[in-house]
Design brief:
- By secondary structure, this protein is an alpha/beta fold.
- It has 13 helices and 15 strands.
- Strands 8-7-6-5-4-3-10-9 form an 8-stranded parallel β-sheet. Strands 11-12-13-14-15 form a 5-stranded mixed β-sheet. Strands 1-2 form a two-stranded antiparallel sheet.
- It starts with a helix and ends in a 5-residue tail after the last helix.
- 43% of the residues are buried.
Length: 374
C-alpha cells in the first residue's frame, strides 16, 4: 500500500453553509474556531483577543452575548476584526435578534429553548434578513428535562434526539443554514453522539470535547476525541475547548488537522524526543525554533533530529532538515539532499533563515503561476 493511500481520510458528505466569509461543510476545509473570554462590553479587550487568535490563524471567533449591551457591542467589534463572529446566545430570543442586527455572522442558539413559536419565528426571520447562519449547540450537561426523564441520564441517543428536535424546528420555518454540535466532557459520550448524529443527518457538524481541562490535559483529551472523529471523516469545523488562552486553542486545532493531513498551516516541526545520543540540545532548539517561526503561515516541513540514527531518513522526507553530528558540527539537508554543515551556535537563526528563504521562494512561485487579473 502506498503512503498516500493509507493517509487518505474520506470525509463525511455534508451540506454546505456559510459563516460570513467562511464556508463550512461540503468540500470546504475544516475550519478552526475559538471563543473570547473577555467581557464583550469591553470592546477594546475583546477586539485585541480576537486579533491574537487571527495572528495564529483562527477562521471563526465566538463571542458571548449574555445581555443587551453585549449584543449591541458586537457592532463595534465586528468592524474591527477580519474573521466572522458567532454570537453565543442562551435562552433570550431578543439577544439573538440584536446580535444579528449588530453584524454577527452566525447565532449559536437552541431554538427549542427560546420560548414560543412566535419568538422562534422572529429569530429565524432576523437570521434570514441579516444573512446569519446558526449553530444548534447540544451539551450533555444541559439536556432537556424530558429527555433526561426518558433516558435516565445523558447518553448519545438523548443528545442526538435533542439535536434533531431543534433541527426540526428550524426546518419547519424553512431555515436550513445551520450546523450542529453535540458536545460532552466525556470523550466516549461525545464521540458516540457525533457518530449517531452523522448517520442521522447531512448537516455540517461542529465538533468539540467540551470542558476538556487545562492546556496539557485538555489537549490530550481533545486530541483523543477529535482525532477519533476526524479520522473517521466526521467534522466540518472544530473548537478545542481549553482552560487556556484562546490562541492556544487555535494552535492545538491546527496541529490536530496537520497531524491527520486534513489541513496545513505554517511550519511543521518533526523532532526527536532527545536521548543520550543527541549532539545538541534538541529540546531547547525546537522550543526556540517554534517561537522564532510562529509568524510563518506557508506550509513547510522542518526536521530537527539529534543524531544520525533517524536524522538522515527524516530529512529525506522534509523540506529542510538538521541531523546532529560530532564535534558540534551538524548536517543540513535541503529538499532531502545533503547541502552543508553547521556549528552549534548558529542552529536556530540559521535554520530560521533557511525556512524564511524557502517560504519566499514558494510564495514567489505561487505569484508567478497565479492567473493575471483581467
Amino acid at each position: 500500500m502506498s503512503v498516500r493511500a493509507y493517509r487518505q481520510i474520506q470525509r463525511r458528505k455534508s451540506r454546505q453553509i456559510r459563516v460570513g466569509s467562511v464556508l463550512v461543510g461540503g468540500d470546504a476545509p475544516i475550519s478552526v474556531q475559538s471563543m473570547t473570554n473577555t467581557p464583550t462590553t469591553d470592546v477594546a479587550a475583546t477586539v485585541e483577543q480576537i486579533r491574537s487568535m487571527e495572528r495564529v490563524g483562527v477562521d471563526i471567533a465566538r463571542v458571548s452575548c449574555p445581555d443587551r449591551e453585549s449584543a449591541l457591542a458586537l457592532k463595534d467589534i465586528v468592524r474591527q476584526v477580519n474573521v466572522p463572529i458567532v454570537a453565543d446566545i442562551h435562552f433570550h430570543y431578543k439577544r439573538a435578534i440584536e446580535a444579528a442586527q449588530s453584524g454577527a455572522a452566525c447565532l449559536r442558539i437552541n431554538p427549542g429553548n427560546i420560548g414560543s413559536p412566535d419568538r422562534v419565528r422572529e429569530v429565524v426571520q432576523a437570521a434570514k434578513d441579516y444573512g446569519c447562519s446558526m449553530r444548534i449547540g447540544v451539551n450533555a450537561g444541559s439536556l432537556e428535562s424530558d429527555l433526561l426523564e426518558k433516558y435516565g441520564e445523558p447518553c448519545p441517543e438523548a443528545m442526538v434526539e435533542s439535536a434533531l428536535n431543534h433541527a426540526r424546528i428550524l426546518e419547519d420555518h424553512d431555515f436550513r443554514e445551520f450546523k450542529i454540535s453535540v458536545k460532552a466532557s466525556d470523550v466516549f459520550l461525545a464521540v458516540a453522539a457525533y457518530q449517531g448524529l452523522a448517520e442521522a443527518c447531512d448537516y455540517p457538524l461542529h465538533i468539540g470535547i467540551t470542558e476538556a481541562g487545562g492546556l496539557r490535559a485538555g489537549t490530550v483529551k481533545s486530541s483523543v476525541g477529535l482525532g477519533m472523529l476526524l479520522w473517521s471523516g466526521i467534522g466540518d469545523t472544530l473548537r478545542v475547548s481549553l482552560s487556556a488562552e484562546p490562541a492556544e486553542e487555535v494552535l492545538v486545532g491546527y496541529d490536530l488537522l496537520k497531524t491527520l493531513g486534513l489541513r496545513r498551516r505554517g511550519v511543521t516541526v518533526i523532532s526527536c524526543p532527545s536521548c543520550a545520543r543527541q549532539n545538541f540540545d534538541v529540546i531547547k532548539t525546537v522550543d526556540a525554533l517554534e517561537k522564532r517561526l510562529a509568524h510563518i503561515t506557508t506550509p513547510l516541513t522542518l526536521s530537527v533530529i539529534g543524531c544520525v540514527v533517524n536524522g538522515p531518513g527524516e530529512a529525506r522526507e522534509t523540506d529542510i532538515g538538521l541531523t546532529g553530528g560530532g564535534n558540534n558540527t551538524h548536517q543540513v539537508y535541503l529538499s532531502g539532499l545533503t547541502d552543508h554543515r553547521l556549528k552549534d551556535a548558529d542552529i536556530v537563526e540559521h535554520l530560521a533563515g533557511l525556512v524564511e528563504k524557502k517560504v519566499a521562494e514558494i510564495e514567489a512561485e505561487k505569484a508567478a503561476s497565479a492567473p493575471s487579473a483581467p
